[in-house]
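Input structure tokens:
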């Protein structure tokens, strides 16, 4: 079995649930004491300052995105460098243009309304399980052209693909790798069947578009199409779910902010961007040095892994005054939540659109929403994906 990168997928930094969720004190300590840090256990460099993380993400000529994969896997857009990355991204971009996304607006609004209608009359609502999880899964299933009745299976797959180990013992890591591989095989078998159906009967969906597309005069192989499907299903699910869930948590953590946004709905777009900065759905991303590189007196060797801690960069006080304060009226918020450069998140406009339609209606439907007393947070166990498995609120 090929061993995927250890630095963010398999490095267990946060031993408790609370530390996993409130990791920002550690980021601050590292920015102040060791902003460029070599981790001898994982053999990776960590970057914590905004300028350094932005530089890492932008400099595709210095840093490669081609990371190790699971056995039998094919690199997706996230793990490809130009020119292959450029060619494949051009195909998928067609589904995420502003014009295409506007066509999805009525469908997404209908879904938001339907999901919230189903919650009327309840005393307690789980924002994640009842709303923030099904909404993006149904949307991305529609875009791909797969049955959203299978969404519980999709969620199971995407959860395990982003999960980190419960401990850093060799047994725990190997067990998780085996589970990831098994779930990936299930997913690929599922998409093989879907791809075969689309070849016989193309529809107006993204999988059909990808099947018919050509790169340098050649059609994409089935394993390349599967890699697209895996990426879009997992990324389209996790990022938006965590954006909405983290956003509601940010508003309710200090309920005066929720009340302010309720009275001033023009602040909602700012609250969404502030959520992306303050509790970024993706906390870290990795690259590999293409050559020996000097950075602020540190020598990064060719081939070494470099992790950019987005969650730390977005709390860098030199770029965000009062960075540890959630401010929906913040004026300057050029955060790195969706990355930077050629790998800027393809689904960022879709995630923003879903949040922009979901948040106002959530707030207006449940004006008395509040966190329950003695809430036991259940964060996702992952070094790089950041969100909650559930978020029960009193409504």
């Amino acid at each position: 079995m090929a061993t995927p990168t250890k630095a963010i997928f398999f490095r267990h930094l946060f031993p408790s649930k609370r530390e996993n969720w409130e990791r920002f004190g550690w980021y601050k300590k590292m920015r102040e004491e060791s902003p460029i840090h070599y981790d001898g256990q994982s053999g990776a460099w960590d970057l914590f300052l905004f300028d350094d993380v932005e530089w890492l993400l932008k400099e595709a000529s210095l840093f490669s995105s081609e990371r190790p994969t699971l056995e039998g896997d094919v690199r997706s857009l996230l793990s490809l460098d130009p020119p292959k990355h450029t060619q494949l991204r051009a195909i998928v971009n067609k589904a995420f243009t502003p014009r295409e996304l506007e066509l999805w607006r009525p469908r997404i609004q209908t879904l938001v309304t339907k999901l919230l209608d189903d919650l009327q009359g309840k005393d307690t609502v789980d924002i994640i399980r009842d709303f923030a999880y099904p909404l993006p899964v149904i949307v991305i299933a529609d875009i791909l052209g797969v049955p959203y009745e299978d969404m519980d299976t999709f969620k199971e797959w995407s959860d395990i693909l982003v999960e980190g180990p419960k401990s850093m013992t060799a047994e725990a890591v190997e067990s998780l790798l085996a589970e990831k591989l098994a779930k990936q095989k299930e997913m690929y078998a599922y998409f093989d069947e879907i791809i075969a159906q689309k070849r016989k009967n193309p529809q107006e969906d993204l999988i059909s578009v990808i099947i018919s597309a050509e790169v340098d005069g050649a059609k994409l192989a089935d394993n390349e199409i599967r890699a697209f499907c895996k990426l879009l299903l997992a990324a389209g699910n996790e990022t938006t779910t965590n954006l909405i869930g983290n956003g509601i948590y940010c508003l309710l953590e200090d309920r005066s902010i929720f009340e302010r946004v309720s009275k001033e709905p023009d602040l909602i777009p700012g609250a969404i961007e502030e959520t992306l900065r303050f509790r970024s759905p993706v906390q870290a991303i990795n690259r590999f040095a293409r050559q020996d590189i000097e950075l602020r007196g540190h020598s990064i060797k060719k081939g070494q892994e470099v992790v950019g801690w987005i969650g730390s960069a977005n709390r860098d006080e030199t770029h965000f005054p009062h960075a540890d304060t959630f401010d929906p009226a913040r004026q300057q918020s050029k955060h790195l939540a969706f990355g930077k450069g050629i790998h800027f998140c393809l689904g960022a406009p879709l995630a923003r659109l879903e949040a922009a339609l979901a948040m106002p209606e959530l707030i207006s439907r449940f004006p008395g929403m509040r966190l329950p007393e003695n809430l036991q947070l259940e964060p996702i166990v992952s070094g790089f994906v950041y969100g909650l498995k559930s978020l029960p609120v009193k409504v």
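The chain is about 50% helix and 10% strand. The CA atoms of residues 199 and 211 lie 7 Å apart.
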